[in-house]
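ASSEMBLY PREDICTION REQUEST
Request ID: AP-0331
Submitted by: J.K., bench scientist
Number of chains: two
Total residues: 654
Priority: normal
Notes: Please return the full assembly, not individual chains.
Input sequences:
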Amino acid sequence: MSEDGRTVRIIQGNEATVEGAIAAGCRFFAGYPITPASEIAELMSRRLPRVGGTFLQMEDEIASINAVIGATWGGAKACTASSGPGISLMQEGVGYAAETETPCVIINVMRGGPSTGQPTLSSQQDVYQARYGGHGDFEIIALAPSSAQEAYDLTIKAFNLAEEFRVPVYVLSDEIVGHTRERVVMGGKLEVLERVAPSKDGYKPFAAGPDGLLRGMPAFNDGYRLLVEGQHHDERGIRAGDDIDKSATLVQRLNDKVRQNIDRIVDIERIDLDDAEVAIVCYGSTARPAMEAVQTARSKGIKAGALRLRAIWPFPDAVLSELADHTKTLIVPEMNIGKLVLEVQRTAGGRATVVGLPRLGGALHTPEEIESAIIDAVKGGKAQ
Amino acid sequence: MNRIAEQYLRQETLPMIFCPGCGDGTVLGAFLRAVDEMKISDQLALVGGIGCSGWMPVYVNADAIHTLHGRAIPVGIGLKVTRPERKVVVFTGDGDAIGIGGNHFIHAARRNVDLTVVMINNSIYGMTGGQMAPTTPSGATTQTSPYGNPEQPFDACRLAEAAGATYVARWTAGHPRQLVKAFKEAIDHPGFAFIEVVTQCPVQAGRYIKGGMDAPEFLADIRKSVVPVAQAERMTPEELAGKTRIGLLHRSQRPELTQQLAAIRGGEKR
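STATUS: Completed
Returned structure:
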């Protein structure tokens, strides 16, 4: 440990996620073993009891997310971790957390699907599942780490955002990030949002401020006499599912509180974009070969740059729209059939050529593959 | 309004959704009397599933959460382990507990986690309009068994005991005083406590299973079909055919989950 309380270790992304969660104040984890996320449960079972927390191995992922919801109202910061089919099973619970404004973190170490698909290899196929996996209209937040360091940093951030916005927040890791061992700097002066108990004076648990957000987070058995209701409800938590106006107001706010505060969520990295004619729009593990490709292209005199999204949901429309105004071509490498590229196309609105670079099968793009797409674009090559 | 109702009901959530003649009000009344005698309303964490019975916590002036269908028990576990001194009581129905939530039910019993799970058994899916449940008698007609139920029903109490529950009792909506005592015992019991309450459901089960029985007839029919455990011990298997045992069916002691977790946390088990 250094003098400023920071430690440096060589650990895999899954372990960094665990350390990030604990640093953020997570004191409850419920999960079910699944490749390639199992190390998170294993390490939580070792670490949590030593910091006064609780680890539970549940009977399935449905129980896991619901135990997380119970633990959150019980007074703990809580999370779960899974992959593929396990995340599918959690969807009704994620929707419940969104409806009841239960802050919680879901770590998805993405693997290849559909179905049991590809347990041991990586993918980014679940980016739309994170956004649209549950029934009904609601917004979530999703962060996508590209390295073990970011698995640590973004997990802390995920807990902070969950508390601030009272929403479920996904950490969209993947098998490559989860299993790559690399240098991680941990500890030191961290920004951690502590849970604040709301004042009981005239308290309405689901009455939002002008920004649509609920203030603080109460716990059961602290004198609030809370009523948490999964059906549409009024500001007191009392069922209002048969009241058209109150139902519409609630659903609108559940969406607006994320969308209208997007400036507090946007998290991007700009690399060599000032004069770029071609920009790679990337996130998660595909950002790694993308960065190398941009460097190589630059060394050859090509005006290439990259926009790396650390927060992919809510999608940073304004950032992409601005980028499309100043760039000729946007290339989107993804380890899926081509998903976030559709968001890029939507926001570019025809003002830049958008080229998808989808990859299936579980192997990461090579830097050469991305570089070759850059060269094609510069030559006035293919558009999609 | 009587004192118990005035003191313990969350007035702004009334009126209740229960149909006329439903047994759930009797069960809720018995529960509130137990809470009053034990003076534990501040320690209560109430969890409801989906179905008629899942609404019970909504009407009680205590911390309450109305969860997803079948998921009340895992939510209750999360509440319990984060503050073991709270008294977590889960209100669930037969479809909620041993249909869609069956896996959670048996594993909670296996863990012997200190919850009180109250399962209202009306032997049908009432709220959705009278479909076959995992407790519907063989041969019974419902909206999804028009030619008679081709399956066998669960005995939830035997299931709970086999899975590891350490307090198991069954009563009916015709036994309100026994229910008060059972609630007190179950809440005080340090482990997974399960109470099944067989109730009349005149609107759905009465119509589809019982050929149009009204509430008093239905309750009388339930009372005729049950035998106290002490009496059942003196009866032959032939005499017991078609009868349901009521009373305290099982009570035992074994390590409870939150105590085990505390020992791990405290270092005694590391």
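REVIEWER COMMENTS: Chain A touches chain B through 45 residues (CB under 8 Å).
SIGN-OFF: pending second reviewer
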